[in-house]
Amino acid sequence: MTSIASHKKAKALKPGSRRPAKELCSECGLCDTYYVHYVKEACAFLNQQVAELEEEAHGRSRNLDSEDDWYFGVHQDMMAARKKQPIEGAQWTGIVSTIACEMLDRGLVEGVVCVQNTKEDRFQPMPVIATTPEEVLAAKVNKPTLSPNLSVLEQIEKSGMKRLLVIGVGCQIQALRTVEKQLGLEKLYVLGTPCVDNVNRAGLQKFLETTSKSPDTVVHYEFMQDFRVHFKHEDGSIEQVPFFGLKTNLLKDVFAPSCMSCFDYVNSLGDLIVGYMGAPFGWQWIVVRNNTGQEMLDLVMDKLDTQPVFSQGDRKQAVQQSIPAYDKGVTLPMWAAKLMGVVIEKIGPKGLEYARFSIDSHFTRNYLYVKRNYPEKLNDHVPKYAKKIVGQYKLPKS
Predict the structure, then answer these.
(1) Residues 374-386: tens digit of each pLDDT
(2) Which residues of 202-235 are buried (b: 16+ CB within 10 A; e: fewer)?
């Protein structure tokens, strides 16, 4: 096992620079450990290195001549899936939780890094190393707030665990991949989820109070393929709010600066990715990036209904129209928002084309954010694939 002393030999940080990324810190948790010594290399907001880490994790980086590659990252398979018997209380059908439980039950891993919530607050993240299926299931349902998942890395090393599953989002996984060799593991499995527009806890409260009719009873929510935000409440009811009816003029400063500067929506460095945006409504989107990811998926294939991915519609006009709406914080009257949502749901992009719509919309917005707020970082921070995506659209000059 790698000793703690070896990390102290790494290049030391200057005093007072515990958060070198400053306001761009995504609170991934690395800086809460002695792995902080690697932060200047590991942090996605200080050292963008997706292509290099893809080569290490998957055996190649993405092919920029392939649209599927430069949108969705290195992959060897994609599909839509849902559990035949969903886990009660899961955000969707419980595919992520099921994979984690299977890996523990079969002895493939000794622990699972996942996120439970505190007893006081269902939305306050509490990273743990789960060692039983019960502890994994206690982490079901997404926490849409910045979460210090990597704060448990010291516990992993001290525990002597040799086989580990980590569940996380893009910025966390980039940092993890950078320090992976320092963990003393025999095998690391990475189960990723796509991620966009997280908030701190105060920001989440503002979003809920601004958007939902009953913010105190929201259990979870998601921006869905039908162009509506779906809020699930304690009584099981679902509240739907059209994207175009969001009070964007009040929410412009809610999302974390790190999320406004992120270009890894699809979690490029996970072995297996489970999300929803490339799948039909009610299904989940699964991306197998390498053989380790296929090994993980194989554990639960007999528990899933699956179907091929598909692509329908044309996103580009909708994306181009969304750029000034994002930029100026345009909010439509609710009647108009509902009408637009119905029209776009019927004739708009679906499947992988919806995923591209979402990526394009966020990448153009984030490119403008970085250009305006961190112009000195623009060239090095925005990956080549993101520049290729943004280059398809006409952006405001200032």
Answers:
(1) 999 999 999 999 9
(2) ebbbbbbeebbeebeebebbbbbbbbbbebbbee
- For CA atoms 240, 274, 367, 146, give the dihedral sign: positive
The type of residue at 73 is G
Does residue 161 surpass a pLDDT of 50?
yes
Tell me the average pLDDT across 59-87: 96
Residue 203 to residue 249: CA distance in whole angstroms: 14
Look-up of token digits 């993240």 = 125
**Of 133, 394, 120, 366, residue with least CA distance to 263:** 366
Please name the residue ranges forming H helices in the chain. Answer: 4-8, 39-42, 50-58, 67-72, 95-105, 133-137, 153-159, 170-179, 201-211, 248-251, 257-260, 291-298, 316-328, 334-347, 352-373, 378-381, 384-390
Residue 198 confidence (pLDDT): 84
Task: Classify 274 as helix, strand or coil.
Answer: strand
CA–CA separation, 378 vs 368, rounded Å?
9
Joined tokens for residue 168: 């996380």
Strands 111-117 and 163-168 turn out to be parallel
Q: How far is CA 248 from CA 58, 218, 243, 339, in A?
A: 38, 20, 10, 18
Tell me how far apart the alpha carbons of residues 345 and 228 are, in angstroms, rounded to a whole number: 10
Dihedral of the CA atoms 48, 50, 56, 57 (nearest 10)?
130
Give me the residue label for tokens 């989820």: 193
* Buried-state track 15-24, b at ≥16 Cβ within 10 A, e below 16: eeeeebbeeb
Q: Which domains does the chain have, with CATH numbers?
A: 4-195+261-311 (3.40.640), 201-258+315-390 (no CATH)
Above 60 in pLDDT, residue 8?
A: no
pLDDT at 12: 42
Q: How many CB atoms lie within 10 A of CB 297?
A: 23
Long-range contacts of residues 366-369, Cβ cutoff 8 Å, at least 24 apart: 366/260, 366/261, 366/262, 366/263, 367/395, 368/327, 368/395, 368/396, 369/260, 369/261
Residue 321 has pLDDT above 90, yes or no: no
89 Rama sector, left if φ>0, alpha if ψ -120 to 50, beta otherwise: left
